[in-house]
Design brief:
Blueprint (H helix, E strand, L loop, with lengths): L7 H11 L8 H19 L7 E6 L3 H15 L3 E5 L7 H12 L9 H9 L3 E5 L13 H10 L4 E4 L21 E5 L12 E5 L5 H6 L13 E3 L1 H5 L2
Parallel strand pairs: 1-2, 1-3, 3-4, 4-5, 5-6
Antiparallel strand pairs: 6-7
Helix pairs in contact: 2-3, 3-4, 5-6
Length: 238
Amino acid sequence: MTFRYLSARLAQQIDDELMSAAGAFSIGQLMELAGLACAQTLAKVYSADKHSRVLVCCGPGNQGGDGLVAARHLSMFGYKPTIYMPKPGSKEIYQRLHTQCSNMQIPTLESDDQALRTALKSSDVIMDAIFGFSFKGPIRAPFDSALPLLTSSGLPIVSVDIPSGWDVEAGNEAGVGLTPDVLISLTAPKEGVRLFRGQHFLGGRFVPRAMEEKFQLNLPAYPGFDQIVDITEVNQKL
C-alpha cells in the first residue's frame, strides 16, 4: 500500500487538526520538527566537508520559518549557512526564529538581486524554503527575479515540502518553478510532486497514529531515531 498524496485542502486540514485542541501542537513545535527534518535531509545528501556553505532561501510564511529553523540546526551540524529572505515574515514567531539565527552568528544577506548573485558564487548548495503548499501563482516580486537566479546558478537545490513555483496539485505545469535535486516532503507528499524524479525524503515524524489512520496517510516507517525516511523508489514507481 503506497502513501497518500495530499491536495492543498487536505494538507491544510491536517495542519489545522495538528494545531487544534485535539492535536495540541503549537506552530512553533511543528516548525522546529519540520526544520530539523529539513536540516537532516540536506546533511544526509550533502556532507559538510564538501558542501558546507548553504544558502537558505526563506519566504515570508511558515515555509520560511522552517528554513530558519533548518539554518540554525545546520549551523550546529557544522555547516556555514547564510540566510536570504528578501521579504521577511511579519509574525512574531518568524522574527524570533531569525533572532535565534542571528544569535548563532548566521549572516543574513541584503535583499537585492546583486547580493544574491554574489552569495550564489560562494555557496555549495541551496535550501529552498520560499513557497509552501498554499502558493498560488503568478510569482511576484521580489521572488520573480530570485528564482531564475537560483536556477541559473547550477548549484544543487534541496526544496522544502514542494519546490518553489510549483502548484501544490498541478506541479510545475507553468514551467516557472525550481527544479530541485532533493525534495523533503513534510507530513505527507503533495499531489503536485508525483512527477518529481530527484531524491525524495519524507519528514514529519510527529503525526499521531490516530490522525494517520483517520486521513489514511499510509506513512512509511521511519528508521531508528531519524526524522526522515527516503521514499525515492516508491515515488518513482508511480
